[in-house]
Write a structure and sequence with these properties.
The chain is mainly alpha-helical. The chain has a domain at 8-52. It contains 3 helices and no strands.
Length: 65
Amino acid sequence: MPRFSLTQLRYQLRSQLRQYRHYRRSRRQLLALDDRLLEDIGINRAEALKEGHKVFWQHAPLNKD
């Protein structure tokens, strides 16, 4: 039976919270972009609004091609 490690749990929690802050910050920045910059990254205003208003714990898995 595996041992419970409080240190490992703290590390995982801290890592997850850091990731959530990253999602929240990135989405706020996306909402602040103007239409010209959105076009540069290949999305329109409607897509930016949809992504920008997601709750911080929702994320899409990264495509690793």
